[in-house]
Amino acid sequence: MRGRWMVLAGLCLVGCDDGETGAADMAHAHADQGHTPGDLGAADGHTGIQGDTWAPGLTKMGAGGLRVRLLASDPDPLTRTQHTWDFAVLEGDAELAECDVTVTPFMPDHGHGANTAPTVTETGVGAYRAAPIDLFMRGLWTVDFDLTCGARSDTVQFAFWIED
Ligand SMILES: [Cu+2]
């Protein structure tokens, strides 16, 4: 068992670029066991994360009550490449301007993120653009939106299965 863990952790050190610590690598190695790359469209058995269905207008709310509404993706539908996403940050239905937004793609099954951190710009009042959203691998991607809007802060997470 320990031998297998060592092999998986070693693979992760070579193949993953997330810069995380040994404890996190152990969690990743465990999560990788039994994962089948072809099981697209299903809930992931280890993380329990259910994929969202991409559509313009898809809106999710964080624990702090702030919402992110995905307005458009280029390309659309999502595919295994780099994307530009337009989105709004909302409280209720009111757009929130001048938010500080960090967008982080991550593959929980594999323990790695994207190679390039997306840049976020405000394109209008409460309207933002993030690029590149680099969903470069098949499988489940989570995309976290970390929001700071004045005194309010929140995290909104989307999850998408990428096939091809
Ligand atoms: Cu991956």
Protein architecture, described:
The protein contains two helices and ten strands. The longest helix is centred in the N-terminal third of the chain and has 14 residues. The strands form two sheets. Strands 1, 2, 3, 4, 7 and 8 form a six-stranded antiparallel sheet that branches. A four-stranded antiparallel sheet has the order 6-5-9-10, with no helix packed on it. Helix 1 packs across helix 2. The protein folds into two domains: 31 residues, no CATH class; 104 residues, Sandwich (Immunoglobulin-like), CATH 2.60.40.3340. With 164 residues, it is of the alpha+beta class. The N and C termini lie far apart (34 Å). The N terminus is likely disordered. Helix content is 15%, strand content 43%. Copper (II) ion binds next to loops.
List the helices and strands and how they pair.
Layout: H1 2-15, H2 22-32, E1 59-61, E2 66-74, E3 82-91, E4 94-95, E5 100-107, E6 112-113, E7 119-124, E8 127-134, E9 139-149, E10 152-162
Antiparallel strand pairs: 1-2, 2-3, 3-4, 3-8, 5-6, 5-9, 7-8, 9-10
Helix pairs in contact: 1-2
The chain binds copper (II) ion (CU).
Copper (II) ion (CU) binds at residues 107, 110, 112, 137, 139.
